[in-house]
Fold:
Amino acid sequence: MGAPCLDLAAYDGPRPQAPRPPRPTQKIPTAETGATVLDSFIAGLPKAELHVHHVGSASPRIVAELAARHPDSPVPKDPEALKEFFTFRDFAHFIDVYLSVVDLVRDAEDVRLLTYEVARDMARQNIRYAELTLTPYSSVRRGIPDLAFMEAVEDARTAAESELGVTLRWCFDIPGEAGLEAAEETARLAVDVGADGLVSFGLGGPEIGVPRPQFKPYFDKARAAGLHSVPHAGETTGPQTIWDAIRELGAERIGHGTSAARDPELLAYLAENRIALEVCPTSNIATRAVATMEEHPLKDFVAAGVPVTVNSDDPPMFGTDLNHEYAVATRLLDLDEAGVAGLAKNAVEASFLDAAGKARLTGEIDDYLAAWPR
Ligand SMILES: [Zn+2]
Structure:
């Protein structure tokens, strides 16, 4: 998601044939926590995340810090009330929470604080590398000068790397609902202003009524400047949107892509061309892109040979985090530890890390698996 999608349609694609209830994964509780062995494996596993939004990653802890800087905000200040505020109820509530956090990011120091604290939450989950989707258009339109925005995120990125061991890269995305003016401004911010950590160019927001091809000139500009193309597509609309993202916008990965399951030719194309899907299971249920978790097409993607990565999208707002998404995927795909490590390696492979960075992180994952159980 990212910017809230106000015009959701129910996923109307075919359901997987006769969905089987997934086999439970190993349910061996550890001593104190009741977590399974696989949960423990996932928690310690070095991971990469490729589809996660900046404002959408603000946890109650971070929101409390931002709210303290802006006492006039209507966001609850009391920790218990804030926790309740953050308990996902429905999509309308998600939008309320999202917009209230947007309202708290008012100056460059808010941007820096949010970015660094998101990295801190990532470090706690052993996320070692993340491509974080920023929507600089929203901040700059609010009056944060473009260079101050870039300086703030770059300062946070440098500090996150040295102090937290989390490597961050940026995707600047167009908030699709804001139209071509936002597209033009986002392309300007990405190409003419730029930031050292910027690797890709995206497109979020609603899909219905926001056709992908109109954004081609802006993606052309970004790609000509060496940025990778990673639009959201096929989350709330059919497979044609994914074809458009590939053919018109040069998509190298697809955000969500859930409706690809309806098009065998598209699945074959994604598999053959190694175009990875950024799958966000809990988000897909929360937004009703997919009706139930048992019907999630993740297993169809894997069966078709499509590279899949697992991601959290807007984690605190959907009551999840990356570790939880790995646990969900583990259940859906009936994975053991080696299979879970394989998912983590998929994300490294599909990332825009350089070859040395990929080799290093893949090596960390292999070493972790080889040393398991500790
Ligand atoms: Zn998203």
In short: Residues 37-370 form a domain with the TIM Barrel fold (CATH 3.20.20.140). Confidence is low (pLDDT under 50) at residues 4-33. The beta strands are 47-53, 127-134, 167-175, 198-204, 228-233, 253-256, 276-279, 308-310.
